[in-house]
Structure formats: structure tokens, C-alpha cells
Amino acid sequence: MKVKVEIVGGEMMQNCYFAIDEQTNDAIVIDAGDDFDRLVNFIDKEKLNIKYIVLTHGHYDHIGACKKLREKYNAPIVAGVGEEILLENPENNLSRFRKEDIELVADRFLEDGEIFKINDNLSFKTIKTSGHTPGGICLYFEKENVLFSGDTLFCGSVGRTDFPYGDSKELIKSLNKLKELPDETVVYCGHGDKTTIGVEKTTNPYMFMRTNIR
């Protein structure tokens, strides 16, 4: 699998990723937040076959380009169970307080532990990671030892829990789940630099917490 970080876009500098099967050029877009034209230019340049648009969570900075991409490439939008309360509500996904309202209806919702098959070569395990949002998920490509963590886990930090439907207790539970992954797992975060589970277990103060994040 090839991972491309093509877009660091929008006012929140959100990372948009492509997970690509190098044999077929089948790909998923992970968190298509902004810069639709740049995304299209990259997809067309690389001759990617966009199979799905997968969302780690539903905040506006991660979903802004999704509708246009779905329409252009006929690619279903996939999210975690419980995240519709953000996706479909501009106040909850915070878009109402930015450029324009975003109301997004996903085509499919994934359960915790569900294996999502992209093609015969590429699949990921869904890890429900509530806390930053109620239905947030991480995408774990076990064979490749790669995790797309959205805004659950950052290099040296974690996602905020003071937005609508955030829950600090749930975020701590989610971090404990991620600590069970192999130390060498490469983590591609929703914002900022990539890291590894091992590095975060030894340096990220939030990974040691057993009580609420304030």
C-alpha cells in the first residue's frame, strides 16, 4: 500500500490522505476536507480509481470536499456508526460558524471491529474511537501496520473534547485501545506530522492519563 499526503488544506491545516493499492491504483480518500480542485488534479494525475471516501469523523474541516468528490467519482462516503449526528447537522459539525453550512449523509456506516474491504489486496479494521466525536473511527491497516487516527491521536497530543458531543472519558478509553497496537505502527494523524504508537506511548502525556482530559 502506498500512502500519499497530498492535501494539507483549509484554515485548520487538515491532512487529507490517499491509501492506494499500487497493483491496481484503486484508492480511498481519507478525510476530504477542502481544496476540491487540488484533490481532483492529484487523482487525475495519478490515474487513481477512487473506490470510497472514508471519514474518521464529521467535523467540517474533514468533510468539506466530500459531496463534490462523491458526485464526480461515484464513490460512496463511509463513516463510523453514530457520526451522523455531526455529519447531518451544521451546528454540530461546526460548519455553521465558518464559510457555509455542510449537511452530509453518508452511504455506509462501519461498526467497531468491522473489516472493510476496499479490494482483494487492501482492507482495514475499523476501530471506534469516541471522544473527540461520538462516532469517530481510526482505520487500521494491519498487514501494512498503518493507522489513520483522524483527530483522536496526534503527535504529542490528542483531539479536543469541548466541541459538541465531545467526551473526555470516552477519549481516554479510545487511547487505551490504540495503546494495544504494535509499537511500530505508523500513525497518520488528522493534523500535523506522522508518528508511531511506540513513540506516543512513551512521550505523549495523554497516553498515560486514566482520568478526564481537561
Order of helices and strands: EEEHEHHEHEEEEEEEHEEH
Helix content: 10-25%
Radius of gyration: 16 Å
Residue-averaged pLDDT, rounded? Answer: 93
Number of strands: 14
Domain count: 1
* Overall morphology: globular
Task: Give the class from helix and strand content and strand pairing.
Answer: alpha/beta
Contiguous runs where pLDDT drops below 50 for at least 5 residues: none
- For the report, how would you describe the main beta sheet? 6 strands, mixed
- H/I helix tally: 6
Q: What is the CATH third-level topology name?
A: Metallo-beta-lactamase, Chain A
- Overall CATH class: Alpha Beta
Across the major sheet, the strand order is 1-2-3-4-5-6
Strand residue percentage: 25-35%
Instruction: Report how far apart the termini are.
Output: 37 Å
According to CATH, the homologous superfamily is Ribonuclease Z/Hydroxyacylglutathione hydrolase-like
Going by CATH, the architecture would be 4-Layer Sandwich
What does the model show?
The strands form three sheets. This protein has a six-stranded mixed sheet with strand order 1-2-3-4-5-6, with helices on one face. The protein has a six-stranded mixed sheet with strand order 7-8-9-10-13-14. It has a two-stranded antiparallel ribbon with strand order 11-12. A hairpin with a 4-residue loop joins strand 1 (2-9) and strand 2. It is globular. The mean pLDDT is 93. It is an alpha/beta fold and 214 residues long. It has six helices and 14 strands. The chain has one domain (2-208): Ribonuclease Z/Hydroxyacylglutathione hydrolase-like (Metallo-beta-lactamase, Chain A), CATH 3.60.15.10.
